[in-house]
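User: quick one
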Amino acid sequence: MALQKKLDYGFSGYEVPPIPRAARSARRRCIFQSKTDDHQLGAFDLLATVADKLLMEGGISPKPVDMYSDVRSSGCRMSAGCRLDGESEKQIKMESKVYRNVSISSRDDMCSPGCPETWESKQSALVRSPNSIKFPSCRGHMSFGSFPFNSEGVKIVTRDNEEKSRRCTQPTNANTAIRPLSDGGDWRIKKSLASKHCKATSNLKGEGYNANKKRCSFLNTKNRYRRQISQRDYPFKKRKLFYCCSARNSDVLINSDGICSFSENDSKGAALLPGPASPGGSSILLHAVAPGECSPFQSRNSHVKLKIKSFRVPDLFIELPETATVGSLKRTVMKAVTSILGDGLHVGMLLQGKKIKDDNRTLLQTGISRDNKSDALGFTLEPTTQTFPTHCPEDPFQLPRDSPQPRARSPLIANVVQDAVEQKSLDALTDPAGGNFRNFPESDDGSALSTPDMLLEKTPTGSRALVAAPKMREALAIVPMHISKQSESAQRRMRRPFTVSEVEALVQAVEKLGTGRWRDVKLRAFDNAKHRTYVDLKDKWKTLVHTARISPEQRRGEPVPQELLDRVLTAHAYWSEQQTKYQLKSQRESCLV
DNA sequence: GTTAGGG
DNA sequence: CCCTAAC
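Assistant: Done. Structure below.
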């Protein structure tokens, strides 16, 4: 994550970088840096802050359930993070490190507009008391003392410890060697932290603290998070160093980072370990290896452990006359398989029954975690060829590639039902080979695969021939095919923040065309930006107007030049006025008529 | 398919 | 960025 420009709000203690929704981005790492020499205590406080921030930032994940902080070596290298729901406790999605004696700071994100408190009140309220940071917006709950640590300044702060410290409304930590304010270090934490702490604490405390909502209005927006959290226990454990020690011989160990080396006897590394197939013949185990053990400085991204039990043989539909011999059937099958494989196969993936289309997304972004049940993931074998071969020379069923039978995009479960209905009459006709047409996933363009209707037809000669479903090239088999309600929730698109130049283009287009003509804006300024829909542009304009109206301190993300924001306001005002005029005019006309 | 607005 | 209503 890029460090943003420094904004000096008068804090000389710590400046907390954004842990923003931007943390959705691939690496999810932030570097936190401290200006103070008293890095130990300071770092602990910062870690607490960071962890809380991680917790409350619902944009990271809807369900943070745990937080941790630890010290990796004496003194200056520490980390903080949180565990999110759906992850194993060994997974660390976010991590922050603290260094000392470096004075790079980054932009903070501010309290939400709905935050009732003024900046001044927070600033004064957040002056760090000797033993704790108090957050008056949630008085009585907000005490968040420094983490205790031993004489070496090294302590693993577990969730339990932390909880105790949270519950401690009266700071009692005598050995918390609070640094005096002498060096100008104000020990103030950023203003927004009051609200964050309030929220985070409420999150941890559960429904019993709903009363705080009135004082922390922003709680409402993330209500669901707190609810989920409150129902959970907090089985925090220090993350294991390595969790993949039981790899079997037949396992294939893959470290997607490709950094560590692996030897069979040294499971602390990781690499491709080509092993013989398991007795099943097609079993593949993808074992993720914690990379952190390879190098203390290496990325500690979460890793995903996948188990692929098997790839099912792609569905083939074969029709042969009853008089055909077994041998000819075998040969026919062989031909079909060979012709498919001849052009190669590639692997498709399904998560919760939903096809994963974007190869560039990370597992994290896609929501694949080690805790995914193996049945949540499906793999398909898909021909890479563009033209599915047919073995019937006079095949009358070969449809043009561009003549799919359109079907409204619908949840896969609906498709399956629909397929089942449509297939009902087909089953009786299904040939002895038992071919069927279930498990057709959505094709890449989002439309469902064509129905097998055409397979009912017969060749002019009345003979039956091997016919492959025209669009079976899209996906041949799914393993396993689990449908859940989650599958109906489509993949969320990858977040792609607007660049300044994009904003510039948007502003220019809206200045020209006005608001309310988003399709035209799209065509004019973003015609070649495939990933920007006119809805996106409309939404971006909405946020731009909002951004322009709030104070610069409250803005997040890549800063938009003030000049652009001014133009946004101007254009917005102008076009709003135009719209109002138009509406008044219309009203008058309608009244006259 | 577009637009507007809430979430 | 998603979802949905309304057109």
